[in-house]
C-alpha cells in the first residue's frame, strides 16, 4: 500500500469527505514518502488560507495604527463629540472630532432598512419556497439575484434621481398624520433623508435576507409540514406551526447579515443623503450621516491627518460589522449542528 | 363516528408519471384494512389519496372518486382542509412538532379548529393520550418537548395528536417501520383498541403485521418497475393469507417475490 | 367520555371563493387606488402603489371573512401579503432597469463608448467613458489575478486537506470577510500602501482593495463546487497510484471547473460595480491612463459618481449612460456565468 494521499502528517488530517473504510490507510505511514509535489501543493494551499487570516489581521492592525495616530491628537471625545473638525478650523488648529452623529445616522438608517426589508424578505422567501407555482419559483429567485447584482452606485443614482423625488408626497402625508411624534415631521424640501436612505438600503439588503431565509425554509423537513397538513391545517397554519418555528434562528441570522450590509453601505448612501453633521429627531428631514458615507464624502478634501481621522471612524465600522457578521455566522453554524442532529 | 370509504376508478399521478391506476375498493367502518404489496406498488400513494395528502407533493394529481359515506372527497367545493380534518393520518416516521411540548402537540389540531377552555383542553389531551396508551408514561412531563420521547412513544404521541380531533378515519402509513419490536407490539395493540372507534387503514411492509392486526387485506402489485401499481385483490385477511384467489398474491405471501 | 364537544366541520364542503377572486380584487384595488390618487391629486406613484396594496390586502381579507370564514380568511391574508411582498421586490427592479435604459440611452452611443472626458468640462455635453471602461477592466483583471489563485487554493485547502483547527478558523474568517464593508477594504489599502508606504494613488491600489473583497467570494463558490465532486472520483485516481496533488489538479479541478468559472465570473461582476475603494485609492482621472501601476485612473462606478456629483443635466445624462453600460456589463457577466453553470453543470446528478 503506497497511496501517497494517505501519507498525512498529524497537522494535515485526511480529506474531510466521508472517509470510507477502504480509504483509511495507516495514518502515519512513512512520512518520508511524502512526494515533493504533494508537499509543495499542500504548502501553497495552506499558505493561501493563512494569507487570508493575515489579511484580516493586517486590516485590523493598520487601521488601529492609523486610528491611534489620529486619536492621540483629538481634543474632542471621539465617542460623544457632535462635530467633525479634524483640521481644527473652529478651534485654532486643534483637531476636534467624534462619531456621535455617525453612530446615530448609521443605526437609524440601518434600523429603518431592517424594519422594511425583513418582513418583505420573509414574504418573498415564503413566496419562493411555499407559495409560487413551481414554474415561477426559479425565475423569481433569478430576479432576486439580479437585484443583488445591481451595483450600489446605480442604486444611489436611481435613489437620488428617481425614488427621492417621488417620496415628497408620502413624506408630507406622514407629516400630516404622524408629524406630532417628532420622528415623522417633514419641513419639505428634497427628501434626501435618513428615511430615504433606509428605504434604499432595504431594497439593497433584500436579496441576502431573502436568499438565506429561503434556504432555511426549504430545509424544513417535509414530515413536519405534513404533520400539520394532516391535522387539517391551512397553508398559513402549516407555515406558522412547522416552518416558522423551525426557521426562526435562520431568519435572525439572515437579518443580521443584511444588517451588516446596511451598516457598511457607502456609495448609495453618499449619493442619496444630503449630509449634514447634525442629529435630527425627524427621519424625514434631510441631514445626518453614516460612517461609510462620511468617509466617502469627506475624503477628497481631507488632509493626511483628516484621512487618519476618517480611518479611525472606519475602524469602528469595521469592528461593528465584524461583530454583527460573526454573530450571524455563529448562529448559522450552531443551527446546522442542531438541525443536523434532528434530521 | 366511523365512516365507510368507497373508492372507484382512482388513478394518481406524479407529474406525467402514473403511480397507481384504476383502483376501486370499499373500506368498511370500524375495522382495520391493511394494504400490502412490494415496494413501489403505490400503496402509500393510494393511502395519501384518501385524505388528499397526495396533491401536496409537487405534481401530485388524482382522477376518480373517493366517497366518504356519500360525499366525494374530490367533488366540487370540497375543502381539502376539511377532508384532512375528518380523516386523520399517522406517518411512517414519527413527526411530532419539534418546537412544541407534548401537551401542545396533542392540542395542536384542536387549537386550529376552535377555542377551548384550559380545563376542556386538559380533559381532551388526557383522553387522547390515554387512548394512545401513552398517558402513564408522559403525564408527569406534559410540558417537555415531544422530541425527547423514544421513537415508539413519539409515534404514539402522533396517534394521540391524530385522534384528539376525533377523526372519522385514521390512515396509518407504515407506522411501525421505524420502531423496535416492543414499540411495534404496543402500537399493534393500540390499533386493536382504536378500531372500536375509528375506521383504520394501515399500510405495512410486514405481512405478519397485516395478518395480526387487520380484518381485511388488500394486495397491490405492479407489472414492472415504472408501470403503475394496481389493486390485485381485497378480501378477508384470513382468506388472503390462507387461500387467495389470485396466484400473484399467493406468490407474494409465500415469499416468492417482493 | 369528555363533556366537551369537539369542533368538527359539518361537511367536507367549505364555502370557497371562486378561483378568479384574487385577480378581480387586485384589479379592483388598483382601479380604486388610481381613482383616489387622481382625485386627491397624489403625484407620487409610490403612494398609488401603496394604496393599491393596502386595499388589495384588506379587501381580500374582508371578502374571505364574509364568505369562507376566519381561518380561511387568515390563510388568504397570508397569501395576499406574500404576493404583495413579491411585487414590492419586483417593482423597484423594474423601475431601476427601466429608468436606466430610458435615461441612459439619450447619450449612449459609439462615441460615448470610445471617448474620454479629457477635453470636456463637467457641465457641457459630450465626452464618454472609454477611459473609465479601460480603468475598470484593468483594475478588475488585476484584482482577479490576486484573488482567484489565493481564493481557489484556500478552497482546495479547506475541502481537500483542511480538517483541524486552522481550517475551522479560516472558514469562519472567510465568512466574516464576506461582510467587510468595501470602504473598510479601501481604508486598509489606503493606510498601508499610500499613507505608510507612500505610494501614489493608482489602479493597482484599487485592485488590491477589490481583491480583498473578491477573495471570500471565490473561496465560497470554489468550495461549494469542490464539495460536489464525488469522492469515488478521487479514490479511483488515488487507487491508480496518482499522487494527491496531481489528482486534485487533473481530476478534481477539471470536474468542478464549470462551477468554479461561474463563481469567479459572479465575483468579478460583484467587484466591477464597487465604487467606495476605487474612490479612495484610484482617485479620479478624466484622461486615458493605460498604466494601472502609475498615476490615477478612472473606473465606471467612479465615473457615475463623479458625473452625478457634478450636479448638472449633462453630467446626469452621462451618469445614466455609464450606469447603463455598467449594468449591461454586469448583467452579461451574470448571464454568461449562468450559461457556463448550465453548460458545464456537474454531471454527478447531485
TrEMBL record, chain C:
<keyword id="KW-0812">Transmembrane</keyword>
<keyword id="KW-0592">Phosphate transport</keyword>
<feature type="transmembrane region" description="Helical">
    <location>
        <begin position="201"/>
        <end position="219"/>
    </location>
</feature>
<feature type="transmembrane region" description="Helical">
    <location>
        <begin position="140"/>
        <end position="159"/>
    </location>
</feature>
<feature type="transmembrane region" description="Helical">
    <location>
        <begin position="171"/>
        <end position="195"/>
    </location>
</feature>
<comment type="similarity">
    <text>Belongs to the binding-protein-dependent transport system permease family. CysTW subfamily.</text>
</comment>
<feature type="transmembrane region" description="Helical">
    <location>
        <begin position="20"/>
        <end position="40"/>
    </location>
</feature>
<feature type="domain" description="ABC transmembrane type-1">
    <location>
        <begin position="133"/>
        <end position="337"/>
    </location>
</feature>
<dbReference type="InterPro" id="IPR035906">
    <property type="entry name" value="MetI-like_sf"/>
</dbReference>
<dbReference type="Pfam" id="PF00528">
    <property type="entry name" value="BPD_transp_1"/>
</dbReference>
<keyword id="KW-0813">Transport</keyword>
<keyword id="KW-0472">Membrane</keyword>
<protein>
    <recommendedName>
        <fullName>Phosphate transport system permease protein PstA</fullName>
    </recommendedName>
</protein>
<feature type="transmembrane region" description="Helical">
    <location>
        <begin position="46"/>
        <end position="67"/>
    </location>
</feature>
<dbReference type="InterPro" id="IPR000515">
    <property type="entry name" value="MetI-like"/>
</dbReference>
<feature type="transmembrane region" description="Helical">
    <location>
        <begin position="251"/>
        <end position="273"/>
    </location>
</feature>
<keyword id="KW-1003">Cell membrane</keyword>
<dbReference type="InterPro" id="IPR051408">
    <property type="entry name" value="Phosphate_transprt_permease"/>
</dbReference>
<keyword id="KW-1133">Transmembrane helix</keyword>
<feature type="transmembrane region" description="Helical">
    <location>
        <begin position="79"/>
        <end position="98"/>
    </location>
</feature>
<dbReference type="InterPro" id="IPR005672">
    <property type="entry name" value="Phosphate_PstA"/>
</dbReference>
<feature type="transmembrane region" description="Helical">
    <location>
        <begin position="319"/>
        <end position="337"/>
    </location>
</feature>
<comment type="function">
    <text>Part of the binding-protein-dependent transport system for phosphate; probably responsible for the translocation of the substrate across the membrane.</text>
</comment>
Amino acid at each position: 500500500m503506497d497511496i501517497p494521499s494517505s501519507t498525512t502528517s498529524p497537522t494535515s488530517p485526511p480529506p474531510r469527505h466521508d472517509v470510507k473504510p477502504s480509504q483509511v490507510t495507516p495514518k502515519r505511514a512513512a512520512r518520508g514518502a511524502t512526494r515533493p509535489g504533494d508537499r509543495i501543493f499542500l504548502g501553497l494551499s495552506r499558505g493561501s488560507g493563512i494569507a487570508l487570516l493575515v489579511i484580516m489581521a493586517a486590516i485590523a492592525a493598520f487601521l488601529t495604527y492609523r486610528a491611534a495616530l489620529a486619536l492621540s491628537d483629538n481634543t474632542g471625545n471621539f465617542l460623544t463629540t457632535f462635530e467633525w473638525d479634524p483640521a481644527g478650523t473652529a478651534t485654532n488648529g486643534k483637531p476636534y472630532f467624534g462619531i456621535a452623529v455617525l453612530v446615530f445616522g448609521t443605526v437609524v438608517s440601518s434600523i429603518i432598512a431592517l424594519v422594511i426589508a425583513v418582513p418583505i424578505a420573509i414574504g418573498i422567501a415564503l413566496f419562493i419556497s411555499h407559495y409560487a407555482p413551481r414554474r415561477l419559483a426559479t425565475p423569481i429567485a433569478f430576479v432576486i439575484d439580479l437585484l443583488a447584482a445591481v451595483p450600489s452606485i446605480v442604486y444611489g443614482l436611481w435613489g437620488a434621481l428617481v425614488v427621492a423625488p417621488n417620496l415628497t408626497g408620502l413624506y408630507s402625508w406622514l407629516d400630516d398624520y404622524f408629524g406630532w411624534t417628532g420622528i415623522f415631521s417633514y419641513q419639505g424640501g428634497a427628501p434626501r433623508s435618513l428615511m430615504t436612505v433606509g428605504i434604499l438600503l432595504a431594497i439593497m439588503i433584500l436579496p441576502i435576507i431573502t436568499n438565506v431565509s429561503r434556504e432555511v425554509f426549504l430545509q424544513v423537513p417535509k414530515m413536519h409540514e405534513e404533520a400539520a397538513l394532516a391535522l387539517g391545517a391551512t397553508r398559513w397554519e402549516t407555515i406558522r406551526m412547522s416552518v416558522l418555528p423551525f426557521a426562526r434562528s435562520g431568519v435572525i441570522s439572515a437579518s443580521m447579515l443584511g444588517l451588516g450590509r446596511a451598516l457598511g453601505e457607502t456609495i448609495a448612501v453618499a449619493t442619496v443623503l444630503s449630509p449634514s453633521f447634525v442629529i435630527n429627531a425627524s427621519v424625514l428631514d434631510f441631514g445626518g450621516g453614516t460612517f461609510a458615507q462620511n468617509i466617502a464624502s469627506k475624503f477628497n478634501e481631507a488632509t493626511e491627518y483628516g484621512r487618519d481621522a476618517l480611518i479611525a471612524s472606519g475602524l469602528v465600522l469595521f469592528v461593528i460589522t465584524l461583530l454583527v457578521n460573526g454573530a450571524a455566522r455563529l448562529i448559522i453554524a450552531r443551527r446546522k449542528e442542531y438541525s443536523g442532529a434532528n434530521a | 363516528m366511523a365512516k365507510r370509504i368507497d373508492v372507484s376508478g382512482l388513478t394518481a399521478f406524479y407529474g406525467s408519471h402514473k403511480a397507481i391506476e384504476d383502483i376501486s375498493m370499499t373500506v368498511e367502518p370500524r375495522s382495520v384494512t391493511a394494504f400490502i404489496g412490494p415496494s413501489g406498488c403505490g400503496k402509500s400513494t393510494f393511502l395519501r389519496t384518501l385524505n388528499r395528502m397526495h396533491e401536496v407533493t409537487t405534481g401530485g394529481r388524482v382522477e376518480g372518486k373517493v366517497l366518504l359515506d356519500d360525499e366525494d372527497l374530490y367533488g366540487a367545493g370540497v375543502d381539502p382542509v376539511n377532508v384532512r380534518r375528518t380523516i386523520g393520518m399517522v406517518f411512517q416516521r414519527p413527526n411530532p412538532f419539534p418546537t412544541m411540548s407534548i401537551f401542545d402537540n396533542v392540542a395542536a389540531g384542536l387549537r386550529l379548529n376552535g377555542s377551548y377552555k384550559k380545563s376542556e383542553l386538559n380533559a381532551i389531551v388526557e383522553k387522547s393520550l390515554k387512548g394512545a396508551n401513552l398517558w402513564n408514561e408522559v403525564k408527569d412531563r406534559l410540558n417537555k418537548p415531544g422530541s425527547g420521547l423514544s421513537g415508539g412513544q413519539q409515534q404514539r404521541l402522533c396517534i394521540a395528536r391524530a385522534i384528539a380531533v376525533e377523526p372519522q378515519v385514521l390512515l396509518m402509513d407504515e407506522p411501525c417501520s421505524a420502531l423496535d419490536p416492543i414499540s411495534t407490539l404496543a402500537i399493534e395493540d393500540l390499533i386493536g383498541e382504536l378500531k372500536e372507534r375509528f375506521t383504520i387503514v394501515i399500510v405495512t411492509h410486514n405481512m405478519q403485521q397485516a395478518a395480526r392486526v387487520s380484518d381485511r387485506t388488500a394486495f397491490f402489485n405492479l407489472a414492472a418497475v415504472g408501470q403503475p401499481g394496481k389493486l390485485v385483490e381485497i378480501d378477508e385477511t384470513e382468506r388472503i393469507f390462507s387461500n387467495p384467489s389470485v396466484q400473484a398474491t399467493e406468490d407474494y405471501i409465500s415469499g416468492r417475490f417482493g | 367520555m369528555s363533556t366537551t364537544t369537539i369542533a368538527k366541520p359539518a361537511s367536507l364542503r367549505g364555502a370557497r371563493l371562486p378561483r378568479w377572486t384574487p385577480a378581480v380584487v387586485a384589479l379592483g384595488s388598483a382601479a380604486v387606488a388610481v381613482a383616489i390618487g387622481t382625485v386627491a391629486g397624489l403625484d407620487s406613484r409610490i403612494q398609488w402603489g401603496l394604496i393599491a396594496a393596502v386595499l388589495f390586502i384588506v379587501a381580500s381579507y374582508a371578502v374571505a371573512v364574509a364568505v369562507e370564514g376566519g381561518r380561511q380568511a387568515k390563510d388568504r391574508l397570508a397569501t395576499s401579503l406574500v404576493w404583495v411582498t413579491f411585487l414590492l421586490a419586483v417593482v423597484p427592479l423594474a423601475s431601476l432597469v427601466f429608468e436606466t435604459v430610458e435615461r441612459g440611452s439619450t447619450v449612449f452611443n459609439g462615441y460615448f463608448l470610445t471617448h474620454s472626458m479629457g477635453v470636456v468640462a463637467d457641465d457641457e455635453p459630450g465626452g464618454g467613458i472609454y477611459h473609465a471602461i479601460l480603468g475598470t477592466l484593468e483594475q478588475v483583471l488585476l484584482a482577479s489575478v490576486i484573488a482567484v489563485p489565493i481564493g481557489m487554493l484556500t478552497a482546495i485547502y479547506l475541502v481537500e486537506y483542511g480538517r483541524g483547527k486552522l481550517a475551522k478558523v479560516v472558514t469562519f474568517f472567510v465568512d466574516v470577510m464576506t461582510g467587510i464593508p468595501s470602504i473598510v477594504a479601501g481604508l486598509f489599502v489606503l493606510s498601508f500602501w499610500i499613507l505608510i508606504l507612500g505610494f501614489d494613488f493608482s489602479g493597482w491600489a484599487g485592485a488590491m482593495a477589490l481583491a480583498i473583497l473578491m477573495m471570500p467570494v471565490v473561496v465560497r463558490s470554489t468550495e461549494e463546487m469542490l464539495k460536489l465532486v464525488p469522492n469515488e472520483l478521487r479514490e479511483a485516481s488515488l487507487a491508480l497510484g496518482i499522487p494527491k496533488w496531481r489528482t486534485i489538479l487533473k481530476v478534481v479541478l477539471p470536474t468542478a471547473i464549470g462551477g468554479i468559472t461561474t463563481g469567479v465570473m459572479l465575483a468579478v461582476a460583484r467587484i466591477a460595480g464597487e465604487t467606495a475603494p476605487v474612490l479612495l485609492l484610484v482617485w479620479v482621472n478624466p484622461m486615458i491612463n493605460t498604466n494601472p501601476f502609475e498615476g490615477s485612473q478612472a473606473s465606471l462606478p467612479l465615473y457615475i459618481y463623479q458625473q452625478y456629483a457634478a450636479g448638472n443635466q449633462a453630467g446626469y445624462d452621462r451618469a445614466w449612460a455609464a450606469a447603463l453600460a455598467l449594468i449591461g456589463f454586469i448583467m452579461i457577466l451574470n448571464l454568461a456565468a449562468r450559461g457556463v453553470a448550465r453548460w458545464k453543470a456537474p454531471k454527478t446528478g447531485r
